């Protein structure tokens, strides 16, 4: 950042730090400033004349501010967006660094472009000569400039994708294979599947998107925010019919965001904490997801109604959201019990803030006086409990947006919702007090705060039912219905936090317990003895963990985590999701976690579901046998009540066996696990640990879901959304909608019209190719001494490890 902060006057050829702003030439009223040859596009605090910017706007088919067209050309949108934001960026570089560096930047850019077109050796030599003539400072500045150009190009791609999605939904362009829920429903009807079966499937379907903080997002949030502004302004230029002044104002805002990014240090100087990662993840709910969910549900309602079917039931949410941020402690020593507590409270406060705003808006909307007798009686009891003077003073101190005084009985819905608002305020205050160290502030017996989503849902459902019964269904099915669906989806925590820990850490904790009570070393027992002892202890009611247990710090942290889980289940029910065991290999890995949950204070009806994570080749192959062993234990079969979750890992399996062998093992592992579950009458939910890159199982999500083995999804799907993919999927409203639509459509289609199972001939060919590829992969990676030195030199792994892009230490990342 040092070269951007210095005075431009210190560099030869630099422009003055505060150039005199030339007077603007006036234009006639109603004229188009952008088409005026003397018009200067206003930049923050200064004005410039730049023909490249004017040409990029005035000559554009999509970005001229003339309104949305029915025509769409992906390549042209990408090119026009690139031309505009690059022209803005180059003008900013010229203004902030001076003519000399700008000329160097432009020359390198032009030489690069020329070599790309000609591939001539002479052009390549000219480029290398120019680069070799630069000083170290100029080289750093040039690298930073090109980094910004590439990031801005990514913005152009996001804009083109969002516009393509919108034009496809408007039927301006063909969509190709159905990637929308509406298209999937129509396609299933065309295939002869009954509408009743489609409705049953979609109303029972559950897709859970799990946000993780894998360190694959290198951009700082400050940069992402600025690029998000540029993206939105480009979309505004395309969609709206603008006056010249409005267009110039949009360009001002784009230029401001681009300059902010250019003048911001791209490199994080300190690593983020897990709490910071959770804040970053929750920001997408504030910006797109929370508002996007009810809008998406309405689109599905319309698709169902068009087929003569009812809308989605209010009490069911077809989408869920979870998170690993602050819960994934596998290899990350910074994720502790305290950290997990912090992120749970942080998510709750974020949710309460969103609901508080929604309730304030709803109070203003529901001004009608007609209601059912039962609802009027409810409002009367609330009204009588209140002292008008006390209510006014209390609400005045809280500085509510409106309705400070005690509301009259002629506005019964406002009376009821005002109490909801008060409780949300109390809940937020209690959560903030807990974060400040007052643990008693979250009292499970306190009826002035909300602890679970049903307490918030109940008054909202009462309002809805009353409005329906008195003939105000249109009002009921507007903002109130949206809020009910948001509460059903997000609960009081926005996301359910998964806990992940390695199996060996649990085994060490149990080993410390067995040694303390004189049973010897648990780690030295064979699997048969471990399972037998764990089951006997689970059936027993005697406590195992003594208060004077001597153990290592690592074991103490494991026990503290289970103690924190039990506490959070009491004071913040519904905030936690699945306990994932990484590197799971045997049935005892699962039983040990169940036992530790109970021993550290967990109530049997509040234990987290436990999911083994099979992520190496041998574990994927052996996993179904271990599930059979688990399901054969009557106590465990009764505990899970017909539901089991299993996670499969794409990244570690690929690193262990190579992509070919890993992909086939994942396919067969899912098939065999589902068969075992069916044998025991268990509904299996498969949790796919996929990333954005091919090496982490990445690829087109729609095709990835449809390519899963038949009868393995059945309307239940969990999948991780990792690192940079979060921004791609949820950074913009159109992309957020497309993501929800894509996952819902693919899950529905796979459940009702699954792909054909491979023939025996294909299976034989895949088995042979997998065996050969795995052998060759392992020979190169694990048995060739030269591979590791080559890999370290040929890849930027060490440099990436030095970047502060994630909370885990580099090796864990």
Write up this protein.
This protein has an eight-stranded parallel beta barrel, surrounded by ten helices. A two-stranded antiparallel ribbon has the order 1-2. Residues 1-49 have low confidence and may be disordered. The radius of gyration is 30 Å and the shape is globular. α21 packs across α22. β6, α21 (587-599) and β7 (609-614) form a beta-alpha-beta unit. The longest helix has 34 residues, at 136-169. By secondary structure, it is α/β, with parallel strands linked by helices. It is 59% helix and 7% strand.
Key words describing this protein structure:
813 residues; eight-stranded parallel beta barrel; two-stranded antiparallel ribbon
List the helices and strands and how they pair.
Layout: H1 2-5, E1 42-43, E2 46-47, H2 51-58, H3 74-97, H4 99-118, H5 121-132, H6 136-169, H7 181-190, H8 195-204, E3 206-212, H9 221-239, H10 244-262, H11 274-306, E4 319-323, H12 337-365, H13 373-385, H14 388-398, H15 412-435, H16 453-469, H17 473-490, E5 496-502, H18 503-516, H19 527-539, H20 553-571, E6 576-582, H21 587-599, E7 609-614, H22 617-631, H23 634-640, E8 643-649, H24 651-657, H25 659-679, E9 683-689, H26 701-706, E10 716-722, H27 724-730, H28 733-752, H29 760-781, H30 787-794, H31 797-802
Parallel strand pairs: 3-4, 3-10, 4-5, 5-6, 6-7, 7-8, 8-9, 9-10
Antiparallel strand pairs: 1-2
């Amino acid at each position: 950042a040092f070269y951007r902060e210095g005075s431009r006057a210190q560099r030869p050829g630099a422009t003055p730090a505060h150039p005199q702003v030339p007077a603007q030439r006036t234009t006639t009223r109603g004229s188009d400033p952008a088409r005026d040859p003397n018009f200067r596009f206003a930049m923050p605090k200064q004005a410039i004349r730049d023909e490249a910017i004017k040409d990029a706007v005035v000559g554009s088919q999509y970005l001229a501010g003339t309104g949305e067209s029915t025509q769409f050309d992906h390549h042209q949108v990408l090119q026009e967006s690139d031309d505009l934001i690059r022209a803005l960026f180059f003008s900013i570089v010229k203004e902030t660094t001076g003519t000399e560096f700008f000329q160097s930047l432009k020359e390198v850019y032009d030489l690069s472009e020329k070599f790309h077109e000609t591939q001539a050796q002479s052009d390549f030599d000219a480029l290398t000569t120019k680069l070799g003539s630069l000083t170290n400072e100029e080289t750093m500045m040039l690298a930073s400039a090109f980094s910004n150009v590439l990031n801005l190009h990514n913005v152009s791609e996001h804009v083109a994708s969002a516009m393509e999605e919108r034009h496809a939904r408007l039927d301006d362009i063909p969509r190709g294979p159905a990637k929308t829920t509406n298209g999937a429903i129509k396609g299933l009807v065309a295939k002869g599947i009954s509408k009743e079966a489609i409705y049953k499937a979609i109303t029972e379907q559950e897709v859970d998107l799990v946000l993780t903080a894998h360190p694959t997002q290198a951009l700082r949030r400050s940069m992402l925010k600025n690029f998000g502004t540029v993206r939105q302004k480009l979309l505004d230029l395309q969609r709206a019919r603008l006056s010249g002044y409005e267009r110039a104002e949009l360009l001002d805002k784009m230029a401001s965001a681009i300059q902010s990014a250019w003048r911001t240090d791209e490199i994080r100087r300190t690593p983020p904490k897990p709490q910071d990662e959770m804040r970053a993840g929750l920001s997408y709910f504030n910006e797109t997801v929370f508002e996007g969910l009810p809008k998406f549900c309405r689109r599905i309602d319309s698709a169902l109604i068009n087929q003569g079917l009812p809308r989605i039931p209010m009490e069911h949410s077809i989408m869920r959201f979870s998170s690993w941020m602050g819960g994934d402690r596998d290899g990350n020593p910074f994720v502790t019990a305290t950290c997990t507590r912090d992120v749970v409270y942080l998510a709750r406060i974020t949710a309460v803030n969103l609901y508080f705003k929604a309730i304030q808006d709803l109070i203003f909307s529901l001004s009608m006086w007609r209601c059912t007798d039962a609802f009027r009686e409810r409002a009367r009891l609330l009204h009588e409990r209140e002292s008008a003077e006390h209510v006014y003073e209390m609400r005045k101190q809280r500085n509510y947006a409106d309705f400070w005084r005690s509301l009259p009985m002629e506005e019964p819905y406002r009376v009821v919702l005002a109490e909801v608002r008060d409780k949300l305020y109390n809940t937020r205050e209690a959560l903030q007090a807990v974060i400040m160290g007052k643990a008693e502030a979250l009292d499970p017996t306190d009826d002035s705060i909300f602890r679970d989503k049903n307490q918030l849902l109940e008054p909202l459902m009462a309002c809805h039912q009353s409005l329906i019964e008195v003939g105000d269904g249109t009002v009921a099915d507007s903002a109130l219905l949206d809020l009910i669906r948001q509460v059903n989806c997000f609960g009081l925590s926005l996301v359910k936090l998964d806990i992940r820990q390695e199996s060996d850490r649990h085994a060490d904790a149990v080993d410390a317990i067995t040694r303390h009570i004189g049973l010897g070393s648990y780690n030295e027992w064979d699997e048969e003895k471990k399972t037998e002892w764990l089951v006997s202890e689970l059936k027993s009611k005697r406590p195992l963990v003594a208060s004077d247990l001597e153990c290592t710090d690592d074991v103490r942290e494991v026990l503290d985590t289970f103690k924190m889980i039990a506490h959070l289940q009491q004071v913040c029910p519904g905030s936690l999701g699945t306990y994932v065991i990484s590197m799971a290999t045997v049935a005892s890995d699962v039983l040990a976690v169940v036992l530790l949950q109970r021993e550290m204070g967990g109530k049997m009806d509040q234990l987290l579901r436990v999911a083994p994570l099979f992520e190496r080749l041998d574990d994927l192959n052996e996993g179904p046998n271990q599930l059979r062993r688990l399901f054969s234990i009557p106590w465990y079969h009764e505990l899970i009540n017909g539901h089991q979750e299993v996670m499969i890992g794409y990244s570690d399996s690929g690193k262990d066996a190579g992509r070919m062998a890993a992909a086939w093992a994942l396919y067969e592992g899912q098939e065999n696990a589902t068969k075992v579950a069916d044998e025991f009458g268990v509904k299996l939910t498969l949790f796919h640990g996929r990333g954005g890159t091919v090496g982490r199982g990445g690829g087109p999500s729609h095709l990835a879901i449809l390519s899963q083995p038949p009868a393995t999804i059945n309307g239940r799907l969990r999948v991780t959304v990792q690192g940079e993919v979060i921004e791609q999927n949820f950074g913009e409203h159109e992309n957020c909608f497309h993501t929800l639509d894509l996952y819902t459509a693919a899950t529905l289609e796979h459940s009702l019209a699954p792909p054909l199972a491979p023939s025996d001939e294909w299976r034989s060919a895949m088995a042979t190719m997998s065996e050969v590829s795995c052998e060759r992969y392992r020979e190169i990676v694990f048995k060739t001494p030269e591979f590791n030195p080559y890999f370290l030199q040929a890849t930027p792994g060490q440099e990436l490890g030095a970047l502060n892009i994630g909370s885990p230490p580099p090796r864990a990342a």
